[in-house]
Specification:
- A hairpin with a 2-residue loop joins strand 24 and strand 25.
- The radius of gyration is 28 Å and the shape is elongated.
- With 702 residues, it is mainly beta.
- The chain has a domain of 224 residues: Rossmann fold (3-Layer(aba) Sandwich).
- It contains six helices and 45 strands.
- The termini are far apart.
- This is ThuA-like domain-containing protein.
- Pfam families: BNR_4, ThuA.
- InterPro entries: Class_I_gatase-like (IPR029062), ThuA-like (IPR029010).
Length: 702
């Protein structure tokens, strides 16, 4: 028990001979093979804020941490290929090149549960710890030969545990100068091992829980003295799970409020079970509904925990493995934070349906920004607010969403990171530092945890430095509609309005219309009489004569207008009869927006955005030189643009070039219009900066 065992790979065992010469030849070849290295480099002419394919073949489970590290301007992460090879990859954010080292080849089966944890040691070397999915008793581990260099690793070593093992969660505690790895071991209960030399060797530490259930834990550490955990009672297939929180520190285990539960076990037995700790989510252990499952936990700047988890609203009968079609189609994401001595927990979004039958509780997953408790990412195959299915070519697709809120008391707002995808996007991981936020996810086919073909994508979001400033004493009202062809404006605009208020101090109001398009209503539109700016992102609607007059009055008074994408056919109703008392307004496009809408034509590809004025100045303030990409297709307007308009941006797509952003005057009203506004544009810093500049310009803010 607790012995350290160095053992050779399967390939090495097969090749052993009595020849010393051949023996040493094989050793060298084996070392080179097990450190097989692949590299992918890209050209300089890329848009660094678009989703980027990092690795062609990779996957991960979510009960291992850390699976990814942000070290200066490099992302290092672990993976398991479709063939079961454990890998470590590096993504360089300076030039977007990537490289991968293969750590295992043939010694573990294809199974994403085998993915390793990563830890940056105090000496700069990287430690990875991994295990098979309950196939043997060995916890494997390796370290890099050189600091910050994933190309060369020590030989694989193994710690023999007290039963079949799975999962690895590795943390260094500075005050004790000890490294811990929490894993699932004997009885499917959580155990831990300890290292005094940063993971070069290990001893058995003890058992965290001892009870009949198979609990699922997520961990987070302050790096100093404390390791937090959240846990279920068991697997959601077998248990009506609650969610609990606790932490370990200086050899003891505690509830959330600091109440001592008892000394941490240092043997193969434990007096603890999950229910000894603080219940955060009450799923009602006796009732088969509202079944919780842990997703992610982080610590805020004060060391206080916040975490997310999923809840299955329609579980099947406990233990059922065959009649799985009866449930698993309604999952929700929940968020919990510790504040003022208590847990505050809420449902925040629809998560959608199960990833596949038999694992009815598997969702696309939700992950937290480790530097900001008001930011998170998740995957779902439904609209996060309404629960409506996300369909692409008639099939449900999982997309990645970014969630953010104004503050801890405010509702969450969401915007798509991926949209209208041909493949599923699942299992985001979030990294952050003071300058940027990085989200990575898996794209492709996921049939089971043993059968998948996935690529690793990543996206970088620049962190906005929020400077405390006075309210700008300006009111902005957004008029939007929801329909399948309005580019998710019901998500993106509330999200952008929240960020605008958070980062720029404006008073924002979003009015989401309702009813049939030919008899549309904008609730509370009468409040625009004191608004300073009207923003339009609605499509082919007719309003009551009274409501349309309110909009016309705003323009007649010389107040400014900002149009986004479908604003160039906002009131252009094409089909059906408009009932008495309602009216459309086709002249809004040529007279106010300043061009004719000529549809899409053949331009159905992504758009290259070209600056037509000096980058970094005026309406392009904060926007660098060079082309950038919008995933949306190009709107056509021929030569119809007002000759007095001042062109800001053009777009190229499918051999065509069109204006895509400009300013003009309509009477005394200042007008800005852009045909950008595809859902994923709202996480591109150039687009959001353009909108902020345009708002300042319309409102005469210097």
């Amino acid at each position: 028990m607790g012995r350290r065992k160095i053992y050779p790979s399967i390939q090495f065992i097969k090749m052993i001979t009595n020849s010393k010469k051949l023996f040493f030849t094989i050793i060298i070849a084996l070392f080179q093979f097990n450190n097989a290295f692949s590299q992918n480099s890209v050209g300089k002419d890329i848009d660094p804020f678009q989703p980027f394919k990092i690795v062609e073949d990779g996957s991960w489970c979510w009960f291992q941490d850390e699976r990814a590290l942000l070290i200066d301007n490099k992302v290092v992460f672990t993976g398991v290929t479709s063939k079961g090879y454990n890998t470590v990859s590096e993504w360089n954010l300076d030039d977007y090149s990537s490289k991968t080292t293969v750590l295992t080849e043939g010694s573990l089966p294809a199974d994403d549960h085998n993915v390793g944890s990563l830890m940056l040691r105090p000496d700069g070397k990287l430690l990875t710890v991994y295990a098979g999915h309950t196939i043997d008793e060995f916890v494997r581990y390796r370290t890099t030969t050189n600091p910050y260099d994933i190309s060369k690793w020590t030989e694989e070593a193994a710690f023999a545990a007290n039963g079949k093992v799975c999962y690895s969660n590795t943390y260094y505690l500075e005050d004790a100068d000890l490294t811990y790895n929490f894993f699932r071991g004997n009885g499917n209960n959580p155990h831990y091992m300890v290292s005094k030399d940063y993971g070069d060797s290990w001893t058995f530490g003890g058992r965290l829980f001892e009870f009949p259930g198979r609990s699922y834990l997520r961990y987070a550490s302050d790096g100093k003295t404390r390791i937090h955990f959240i846990t279920t009672d068991g697997h959601p297939r077998h248990m009506n799970n609650n969610i609990y929180h606790g932490y370990v520190e200086n050899g003891n285990a505690y509830r959330s409020d600091g109440t001592l539960v008892g000394p941490l076990s240092t043997t193969e037995n434990s007096k603890f079970k999950p229910s000894d700790f603080t219940m955060v989510f009450d799923g009602d252990i006796d009732t088969r509904e509202d079944i919780g499952w842990t997703s992610d936990i982080q610590l805020d700047e004060n060391g206080q925990p916040y975490f997310v988890f999923s809840v299955t609203k329609d579980p099947i009968t406990r233990g059922e493995r065959f009649n799985v079609e009866k449930g698993g189609f309604d999952h929700r994401y929940h968020y919990a934070r510790w504040a003022n001595g208590e847990w505050i927990e809420d449902e925040i979004a629809y998560a959608g349906s199960r990833l596949y039958p038999s694992e009815n509780e598997y969702t696309g997953l939700i992950s937290l920004n480790p530097k900001d408790k008001n930011i998170l990412y998740f995957s779902g195959d439904v609209h996060p607010v309404t629960g409506d299915p996300l369909l692409v070519d008639g099939e449900r697709r999982y997309e990645i969403f970014r969630g953010e809120r104004l503050n801890e008391e405010s509702p969450w707002k969401f915007t798509p990171v991926t949209f209208n995808s041909k493949e599923d996007n699942i299992r985001p991981i979030v990294l952050a530092d003071d300058n940027k936020e990085v989200v990575m996810w898996l794209t492709g086919r996921y049939t089971t945890y043993k059968d998948y073909q996935l690529k690793v994508y990543g996206k970088v979001i620049k962190k906005k430095r929020i400077v405390k400033e006075e309210e700008k004493n300006k009111k902005i009202t957004f008029l939007i509609s929801k329909d399948p062809d309005n580019y998710e404006a019901d998500l993106t605009i509330p999200y952008f309005a929240m960020k605008l208020s958070k980062e720029s101090g404006f008073e924002t109001n979003v009015i989401l219309g309702e009813g049939e398009r030919n008899a549309f209503k904008l609730p509370g539109l009468e409040t625009i009489v004191d608004t300073d700016l009207l923003v339009f992102f609605l499509r082919r609607v007719a309003l009551s004569s009274d409501q349309m007059q309110l909009i016309k009055n705003h323009i007649a008074a010389g107040k400014p207008v900002l149009g986004i994408r479908t604003a160039n056919h906002a009131f252009s109703v094409k089909d059906g009869k408009i009932p008495s008392g309602y009216e459309d307004w086709w002249e809004f496009v040529p007279e106010v927006i300043g061009h004719e809408n000529m549809g899409y034509g053949a331009a159905k590809e992504a758009t290259q955005v070209i600056t037509e004025q000096k980058a970094g100045k005026k309406l392009l303030k904060g926007i660098p030189e060079g082309k950038w990409i919008s995933q949306g297709n190009l709107y056509l307007m021929g030569n119809s643009l007002d000759s007095k308009a001042k062109l800001i941006l053009s777009g190229e797509s499918d051999g065509k070039t069109m204006p895509i952003a400009y300013t003009r005057k309509s009477g005394k009203s200042k007008v800005f219009y852009t045909s950008l506004g595809f859902p994923t544009d709202f996480t591109h810093p150039n687009f959001t900066q353009l909108l902020k500049n345009a708002i300042d310009w319309t409102l005469n803010i210097k």
